[in-house]
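Run log, item B.
One chain of 218 residues. Sequence copied directly from the ordering sheet:
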Amino acid sequence: ARVKGFGLEELGIQLTPQGTIQTDAFLRTNYPHIFVCGDAAGPYQFTHTAAHQAYYATVNALFRPFLSLIPPPWNKSFKVDYSVIPWATYTDPEVATVGLTETLAQQKNIPYEVTTYDLSDLDRAITDGEDEGFIKVLTPPKKDKILGATIVHARASDLISELVLAMKYGLGLNAILSTIHIYPTLSEGNKFLAGNWKKARKPERLLKFLEKFHHWKL
């Protein structure tokens, strides 16, 4: 981002070692009435993170003067949230990612399990003639929590949004599996992946008991 030549130095606005404008969690500079968003603020050079920052910067700038008039717990500024940042590479097919990849998980020594779904099995992908690709999700061992997801497909940047939402609000694969998806759509791929995750963790002992029970009833 270009931050020089605009008089910021004369104002004494602080910069980061990366050459962006230093902000706090509320997107304020060292002058509390000056807010920054987008590439000038960093740390991500994405249009969608710039729009995300713009919302928080605008809300904080507009409503901060009135916070003293608002009763708690609503009388506080909004911290920008970078915990779940998706990105996409617009190759053919596209590659979309959110959260941890296998490489990052290994580098950070984070234990994980992998669940995949091959989009060549998806009816809508077959109908559209775009059945090349897969969905991959990382979860902690024995826990229903999404650590990260990677999708490779012609529409990967659209497909990833459901998983981004799930990560943002702490929803696991059970929540996706129990959600009705329209047939035939590409988004069913996320549900079928969740189904693969569930099948790999099916209660074998309980199922054997139920099998014997129903045979006995017959």
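Observations after the first pass:
- Strands lie at 86-89, 94-99, 113-118, 134-139, 148-153.
- The radius of gyration is 23 Å.
Flagged for discussion on Thursday.
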